[in-house]
Amino acid sequence: MRLSCISLLIAGSLLSVPGLLARAAIEQEPDAPVILELAPAEQSTLLPEADYDLMLVGGGLATCSSMSARSCSDQAKFSKLAKTSNAYLLHPTTLQLFAGAELFTAERASLQQQLATLFNSLPQAQGKLLTESQLIEQWRSFQATETLAVSGEELWQSLSERELNAVLDYLEVPTLSADGKYRLTEQVDLAQTTHAESAELYRQFVQLATKKAQAKGREQAKVLVVTASSRDPFAAVDFYLDAFRQAGAATQWLPLTAALQRAITEQNCAALPQYLANIHGSYRREQIYADLFTSKQQLCEKGSSAVVALIADADGIFFNGGDQSLTYQALRHSDGSASAELLAILEAVKQKRLLVGGTSAGTAVMSGSQFFADDTATTTVPMISNGDSYHALQYGAKAAAAPWPGCRKEQRCPDEMSERQLTFTATGGLGLFPLGILDTHFAERGRQARLLVLQQATQTKLAFGVDEATALLVDLSLQAEGIVQLKASGAAEVYISELLPESTPAALLADTYSLNAGDTAVWQQGKITLFPTEDKTKLVNSAEPLQSKSPLFSRDHYRSLSHSLCRSNFTAATVSEPPYLIRVSKVDSCYQSADGKLSAKQRLRIITEQ
């Protein structure tokens, strides 16, 4: 029997109970009949062909480049002007600048001085260009002396991520060609990328953007690349420009960042280096990427109208991964209001002139209700910003700024929060995806529980988790009629969770559905109808045993259990991880495509063990 479509009405809930999850055990139940709710087959033909406005990637795009050879085939080759690694130099001038910079807090200033002493005590590295791995190897192998009574390894372990990044920024030097005339750039080779689905997603974005271009009378898509999510917004520019250029687009970097937004707002473009340091934690970028920094400063001096003009002329705009809070600050003012640049993006999407894409943080930041701003009945959709499943279950969700990585070592975590505290922006992100919360790196990092916790805490009905090297395509053409078309693309799955009315803070409850490449869905007035690919057939139950790995919300363990349940003759599995019982149940039969990909409607319940 072929499944033409399944009508899905799903819901979920949150649990906030102290304690951590531990050992897993499986309780198996015998098979029982299940009932499929089928929508009329002809329903899928009533809607127009999708013209997608958003392409939301879950991160993890393993792409062949001169700085990522592990993703390349043996045939990959790059020119002599290809950058293969960052360069570092222990030079008296650089070390003097580092020792005098205010990078560490007053309480930890001694660490900075110890590091300066250590770097001056590495004679074999003085005056030599080092790769990052070479620098770190010599640093960590340093043994304590009479001059410095602490070892390099001890100093390494003492640093927070923020402090380490600052140290590396100050020791970094530009990577130049042999004659010193050119800055080396990271080069991409999509054709020799071993992970085919990753390379294809770049091409698909350009193909969709090209449709926007053709509607304007031109054949080649103009794609803007935004690296606002990065701590160092210059580092990935060359990579993305080359990737989308190889995919067939005319590309340009749009240097729109939180630092640029602040400089334009305060009319102080000369202070860009300070804004980069204070907001991004990025230092000396004007020296490392002089050409890119000049472009950024020139755009700053032209003002917001110049940024808006670039957006208005583009067919596609793509946001990179990193920290979604940084991209939020790049496009919203300090009071949360939309910037002129964000309003230009929203208007271009509404007019079907612009495709907006993102990966990882560039996807998560799209959550929010801005696109439905004229609909007074629309509730606010929050933006997730930090946390993992187990900390979410233990400590709940907080509407607060995310603690920065390493704040525990500096003893500066805000409000005594854990570094892994689940945090969110209650008013949402950029607001281009109005249907629900967006999460990324989803199955690979076991984020099912953190999504449910946030749904329960904010009473958000729908949430979407996108796996790595996978995309959720979104057509907002009919949003005025309350209809949005969705499609999955790429290597893995898009996970949909809907908060069930029966869910309580003591018993999380959600119906879930996973789409994979080719599966489509329609959101209509709050209800999701799913249309799996035509080649999917009902999975015949086998005697395959249920398999589970603990902890369940770690790595891809939950996805593995879900798939194992589909292929077993059991209707449910209960995993005990005190103080919780986690129960996954079949709601409908599972369906499988010819290449083994599964579509599974299931129910997730998390309760406190009695």
Descriptive notes:
The protein has 18 helices and 27 strands. The chain has 3 domains: 6-46 and 531-608, no CATH class; 54-71 and 188-506, Class I glutamine amidotransferase (GATase) domain (Rossmann fold); 87-173, no CATH class. The strands form 5 sheets. Strands 1-21-20-17-16-3-10-9-7-8 form a 10-stranded mixed β-sheet, sandwiched between helices. It has an 8-stranded mixed β-sheet with strand order 2-23-24-27-19-18-15-14. With 610 residues, the protein is of the alpha+beta class. The longest helix has 20 residues, at 196-215. Residues 1-43 have low confidence and may be disordered.
CATH architecture of the largest domain: 3-Layer(aba) Sandwich
Q: Round the mean pLDDT to the nearest integer and report it.
A: 90
- Identify the CATH homologous superfamily of the largest domain: Class I glutamine amidotransferase (GATase) domain
**How much of the sequence is in beta strands?**
15-25%
The count of helical stretches stands at 18
Query: Gap between N and C termini, in Å?
Result: 42 Å
Radius of gyration, in Å, reads 25 Å
The SS-based structural class is: alpha+beta
Regions with pLDDT < 50 over 5+ consecutive residues? 1-43
Biggest beta sheet attributes = 10 strands, mixed
Give the assembly state of these chains. single chain
Top-tier CATH class of the largest domain? Alpha Beta
Q: What is the count of β-strands?
A: 27
Structurally, the number of domains stands at 3
Specify the overall morphology: globular
> What is the third-level CATH name, the topology of the largest domain?
Rossmann fold
Helix proportion range: 25-40%
Main sheet: strand order: 1-21-20-17-16-3-10-9-7-8
Protein name: Cyanophycinase
Keywords: Signal
Organism: Alishewanella longhuensis
InterPro entries: Class_I_gatase-like (IPR029062)
